[in-house]
Write a structure and sequence with these properties.
Elements: H1 16-51, H2 68-74, H3 116-119, E1 155-156, E2 166-167, H4 184-195, H5 201-210, H6 217-243, E3 247-258, E4 265-274, E5 282-287, H7 293-298, E6 304-307, E7 324-327, H8 330-340, H9 345-365, H10 370-396, H11 404-414, H12 416-420, H13 433-438, H14 440-449, H15 455-473, H16 478-488
Parallel strand pairs: 3-6, 6-7
Antiparallel strand pairs: 1-2, 3-4, 4-5
Helix pairs in contact: 4-16, 6-15, 8-9, 8-11, 9-10, 10-11
């Protein structure tokens, strides 16, 4: 290649063919350098956002990203073909004021009274009568405390023959771990503290030690394994329930795993499968790698819509005749444009503007029935998608191949059919954000406990996250749920294990 910066004009050859060849090579070099600059600018922007910027992908509304509005509104409407009025979304119920003190909170009342002398009237000397009281309310806190649970079984013997001793039987179950030390409440608290509150076991061990109870981390780890093994049939039932959905969402996230024969951790995966509104639960599976065989195995018998990102491992799921249909994720498409804005602000902002209007349609259709939501999407979102597609096709021809913006365009165009399918189905979502939200707890947790110690530890985490995240989806308090099912799962009939799923769980009246 000829270096452009050191090119000597006097040394140029007179042969036109040679000159043409040199110009082509110079053009290729310029394009390659420009591509390198765009890539480096893209990487620098990402590193700056990761290090210093906000994690949100919000774009200031003051930016000029709505230039396409004029195009959409420029065409005069034909009065003879006016669409039918759109159904109006049901107003969302107004939330009451933030209730600082819950009504069912245990109450401790302390009465502050006057002394006998203060009760006498300073005018006539008679004792004043009580006419009411003023109250000052506060929320106070008593640190969690341990207590020893002693089950005393009474023994009886015949006083005449001094034989035939009878002892009250042990209840079933006597505890969550046979002949083990932890009670149901302690074991539930350990699971919730680690997998809901992201408190690693070594920190829990230190907290317990401050209360005078020494429980080594290895013992806590063993208890977690025994508890999750006991609860695994419920998670199997959750997975069956999720796979009965018509629309299923899936995604995966990285979890570091320790390997005994290596001096470093490796990347393992936690896969999540989220059911639709009729099967509102999430099940997780831990795998030591990201091979495509894992989702293929889990979803082998599933028929319906699968919403996921464009990971190549999902491609075989949607082969003709599989009975599965791909739903795209508009949030993923937007993310590519957002990250490429540093290299091409005009196109990036315009693409984000198109996607923003699609989400405005979703906000308009919130609260409607599926049929009404589909009607709103067809009338409002379909024209925006048509204009968006035309703009993508036109601008794609002007992009430098391999540039960050070119990759963003490529993702949107390659996924275009899947990204449009939500329009005609009112139960489908525009994105996979609901699934990603259920993985947020995993992302926060791994920042604290850093890695799982083995494949077995990963499977324990999958069980715990399945139950706790499903509790969150159904408004169930995880500690209360786990304490109850740890007690009931011992004697509950296997045929009725569905009753212990968070979606169908009914707390006993005396549970606390």
């Amino acid at each position: 290649m000829h270096a452009i910066a050191t090119l000597d004009l006097n040394a140029l050859p007179d042969d036109s063919e040679t000159l043409k060849k040199m110009l082509v090579e110079a053009g290729e070099e310029l394009q390659e350098r420009e591509l390198d600059v765009l890539r480096l600018k893209h990487l620098l922007g990402r590193f700056q956002r990761w290090q210093f910027g906000a994690k949100s992908e919000r774009v200031p509304e003051g930016q000029q990203i709505f230039a396409f509005y004029g195009t959409l509104e420029a065409e005069p409407a034909d009065e003879s073909s006016q669409p039918e009025p759109l159904p109006r979304a049901r107003p969302r119920p107004k939330r009451g004021g933030y209730r600082v003190i819950p009504a069912d909170l245990p109450r401790q009342v302390v009465v502050q009274d006057l002394t006998a002398d203060e009760k006498r009237c300073p005018g006539c000397g008679l004792e004043r009568a009580c006419i009411g009281f003023d109250e000052t309310r506060q929320i106070d806190f008593t640190p969690a405390s341990f207590f020893e649970y002693v089950l005393r079984r009474m023994k009886y013997a015949c006083t005449g023959c001094e034989k035939h001793v009878a002892t009250a039987p042990l209840p079933v179950p006597a505890g969550p771990i046979e002949k083990g030390l932890p009670g149901f409440g302690l074991l539930a608290n350990i699971l919730v503290a680690k997998y809901a509150d992201h408190l690693p076991l070594y920190r829990q061990s230190r907290i317990y030690a401050r209360h005078g109870v020494e429980i080594p981390r290895s013992t806590l780890c063993d208890w977690v394994g025994r508890a999750t093994t006991l609860l695994s049939p419920i998670v199997e039932a959750i997975m069956k329930d999720v796979l009965a959905s018509r629309i299923l969402k899936t995604d995966d996230t990285v979890v570091r795993m320790q390997v005994p024969w290596l001096d470093h951790t490796v990347q393992a995966r936690l896969w999540g499968y989220l059911g639709d509104a009729h099967h509102n639960q999430v099940g997780y599976e831990f795998t030591p790698n990201r091979n495509e065989e894992h989702p293929l195995r889990i979803l082998a018998g599933f028929k319906g819509f699968v919403q996921a990102d464009a990971y190549k491992g999902y491609d075989k799921l949607f082969r003709p005749g599989s009975g599965r249909t791909e739903l795209g994720c508009m949030a993923h498409a937007r993310r590519y444009f957002f990250e490429a804005r540093d290299t091409d602000p005009q196109r990036g902002s315009t693409a984000i503007g198109f996607i923003r209007t699609l989400y405005e349609v979703e906000a308009m259709a919130a609260g409607l029935s599926p049929q009404e939501r589909a009607a709103v999407r067809r009338q409002k979102a379909s024209p925006i998608l048509g204009s968006f597609k035309g703009w993508l096709d036109q601008e794609a021809l002007k992009l430098i191949p391999g540039s960050p913006m070119s990759k963003a365009f490529g993702y949107a165009l390659n996924q275009w059919e899947a990204l449009n399918r939500y329009v005609d189905d009112g139960e489908a979502s525009i994105d996979n954000n609901a699934m990603e939200r259920t993985l947020r707890g995993v992302a926060i947790g791994r920042k604290n406990y850093l890695f799982v110690g083995s494949e077995a530890g990963g499977r324990w985490a999958a069980v715990a996250y399945s139950l706790i995240e499903s509790c969150k989806l159904n408004g169930v308090e995880p500690y209360r749920y786990l304490k109850d099912v740890l007690r009931r799962v011992w004697t509950h009939p296997a045929s009725g294990v569905d009753e212990l799923m968070p979606r169908l769980w009914k707390p006993p009246p005396d549970s606390s």
